[in-house]
Amino acid sequence: MSAADEKTGVDPELEPxxxxxxxxxxxxxxxxARLRGTVVDIRIPASSSAADERHFVExxxxxxxxxxxxxxxxxxxxxxxxxxxxxxxxxxSIRWVSNQRRRWxxxxxxxxxxxxxxxxxxxxxxxxxxxxxxxxxxxxEIGHTARFWELVDAYPRAERAKGYLQAKAEDSA
Length: 173
Prior knowledge:
The chain is an alpha/beta fold. The chain has two domains: 69 residues, no CATH class; 98 residues, Metalloproteases ("zincins"), catalytic domain (Zincin-like, 2-Layer Sandwich), CATH 3.30.2010.10. Helix content is 45%, strand content 19%. A three-stranded mixed beta sheet has the order 1-3-2, with helices on one face. A three-stranded mixed beta sheet has the order 4-6-5, with helices on one face. Strand 2 and strand 3 form a beta hairpin. Helix 4 runs antiparallel to helix 5.
């Protein structure tokens, strides 16, 4: 893995995805896509404009790419390691989700589950680790209390990660 790859924590050996657009007279408004190896079959309405087609291709390629990269990261092992290092409880489950557009992560303390936005997949590993530590701290302190921030700020790159996430949030606003 090169230095650039270590920075993202992602295996560079993934073959690029190829989009195959299928225009369908039966489709009226919606589009759908399926991954077949490295080919993404994207079905769109026959009446779609070139701009709509570009939008659908970009959207589905990005979605499947995030999913493939997410599969390369062992979140459970990472969370367990970070929990041990920071004296926090391990989650009962941790997984990627694609429905979080305003949050980087969420936690349900009552059942110990953690969900991370799949937007984090392309971020540096130390940022993902920060979000995991943040959510692990919620297993101890539900709210953003002073004690909570003490737990989170014990992560060595906490301030740097907060700045990175803030910049990314502003980019997408």
